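Continuing the batch. This is chain 6 of the set; chains 1 through 5 are on the previous pages. Same settings as before, nothing changed between runs. Recording input and output for traceability.
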Amino acid sequence: MKKQTAITISINNSNNNVNDNGEQRMTSMEIAELTGKNHFDVLKAIRKMEAAWEKVTDSKFAVNEYKDPRGRSLPCYSLTKTECLYIATKFNDEARARLVIRWHQLEEARRETAAWEQWKARWAQPRQSVHLLGCTDEEVLDEADDIIGEELDELNRCSDDCYTPTEIGKPFGLEGRDLNSFLCDMKVIEWAKGQWQLTPKFKHQGLTENRSIVLHGRNGRRRTVSRLVWTAKGRDFIMGMMK
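Output for chain 6:
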């Protein structure tokens, strides 16, 4: 069998989790961030283990390039879940646990995205086809609301028992936006990609989940947005900070 050579791909986001073929991957940059290791040391460990992997699988690890703050093109690896777990055998228990949890989060997010895309495809038909059924606009919207509610129930299953910032802040006389401002000042959360997100220091600790909600614009159009909500562990963490 002819051996597969390393693949070089130029990327802008060093933590991009899906390649052009739709395959879920994790870069050595993210592995370093998750495990608290220096990226150079992670690269060194991967290179050391690549020979054994190539011997067994007859393939090398995919290689990416990323731009550092000085504009230099530097190498990083792009690994599948199986390759990541192979590399993690050399890590300590905590580092391995963080990788396993991160892969679970990636796969859950991908399933949620797939479910949402499937729902959008089902409702992408022209409105004229609905009128053929003899339904009024109001009836169509009511039916759409029912289906959206069912889909959101499925998407939000993981956040059913979570708490909103408003619910957590109420005992302290704080509205949700005030609590978010406090947590931002404390470097617990930050505003990124149109929503509040945990800062890297507090990620992967089971403090939060994302909850999808539907907003209605003035033009009647609906859009789905994601909101950060807090698990029981996250609520206790915040209340400990407030005391």
